[in-house]
Amino acid sequence: MADQSGKERIPGVPRYRKPKDMPTNGTEPFFPNFLLKEWIVGSVLLVAFILWIVFNPVELAAVADPSDTSFIPVPDWYFLFLYQLLKYIPGDYVWLGTVVIPGIAMTLLALAPWLDRRKARHPFKRPIATGAMIVAVIFMAWLTREAEVQHEAALAKNPPKKKVELPKDTAIVDQADPAAKTFGTSCASCHGAELKGQLGPALLGIGNKYTPEQIEEIIKNGKPPGMPGGLVKGDDAKKLAEWLGKQKQK
Amino acid sequence: MLKKTYDWIDERLGVTPIWRDIADHEVPAHVNPANKMSAFIYCFGGLTFLIITTQIISGMFLAMYYVPDIINAYKSVKYITDEVLLGNIVRGMHFWGASLVIIMMFLHMLRVFFTGSYKAPRELNWVVGVLIFAVVMGFGFTGYLLPWDQKAYWATAVGAKIAGSVPFIGKYIQTLLVGGPDLGALTLTRFFAIHVFFLPAALLVLLGLHFFMIRKQGIAGPL
After folding, report:
1. Does domain A77-157 have CATH number 1.20.950?
2. What topology in the membrane does the UniProt record assign (chain A) (predicted)?
3. A101 vs A82: CA distance, rounded Å
4. Domains of chain A, residue spans
5. Which of A181, A210, B119, B168 has its CA 20 to 30 A from that of A101?
6. What is the nearest CA distance from A96 to chain B, expressed in angstroms?
7. ipTM
8. B 54-113 residues with CB below 8 A of A?
């Protein structure tokens, strides 16, 4: 045991006292002397931490929406290196990246004391252990950076959809019209039964934006990227377009 | 008065030997930042524990308002952020603290590794430390979902899929975590339970072991 203090305790004395003839070689009692010094370091960290919190308020993204598959997911930064690792492994072998590689890494880490059994402790005297750890840290840092860069690129290419502001007046015009039924069977799965949008955009107030003729064109020919053409044909399309053209909201 | 109270309790409970074992010992010179500035690297472990303590406290305060169901989780987090007195600070502490714990833990681990402090007789403490590392990462993974916003939902969807890719038992792990075929109400309650009951229990036991072993084995000598 490296801790010598147990032997030098004076029985019956309520607190550890250094014997008078013991040389002062820079050691000091844990409590309160050392703890106070550590607390000074701790309070510096806490002040810096609080300042960081005050100037970096946490944001809350939009509420979770399982139907919005266009959201580009990204894990918290400390999982990025794992996440990035998976990108380099082909689909069928993904278990290599999810189980085998992290498993080996964690096992090696846990077994480090048994892999490196020589007495030497100075980092320069055990170049394999030191070198391996430095390489691992650099590799993790590089993976994290790479993940970050690729995520930024993905965001730039495919910016997050802004939620379309729904018009204040969300009443559907002329709901008894037979075209409303056509809408229900052919369009509602994407645009929502109440025209509020789901995968596709909301169609409330679409009449403000397009004339019935333009809407008919869109129904017939589709509209990139998501809207297929020809879901509703002929006369039904015309009637549907007329009905949608009536959807003028504030 | 204070001394009398202490003596009275000590007579009945024998506090002195306990507190001696915990706090009454000499600390070697080479870990004292007051002697040598570079010794501050030995503070990383203590600082990790300090930040873990702030995580526990801020988490307890967040639990006063947080509701772990898919209808109210987002609203309650929004309420904490926008309405509760100092709520944004407490939430900020818990959010940023998660990253800080991981940074400090990582630095502590590197210090122990590079100074070879894991060598005999401290191997077991190193193994416990690696387990603490895994538990803390578990905190990060389960805590991320709780605000139930888009970032949280989709990051966890990816995480659950990764868990599902484990050969043979992946599907079972995924079901255990997610609670069904899709991420939903059960997932949130499960992650909440893991985050506030299972993992804290594991962490406290492991930290207890970690500190017990430091006292038993002492701090490794200077390089």
Report:
1. no
2. Multi-pass membrane protein
3. 10
4. 77-157, 178-246
5. B119
6. 9
7. 0.92
8. 54, 70, 74, 77-78, 81, 88-89, 91-93, 95-100, 102, 110, 113
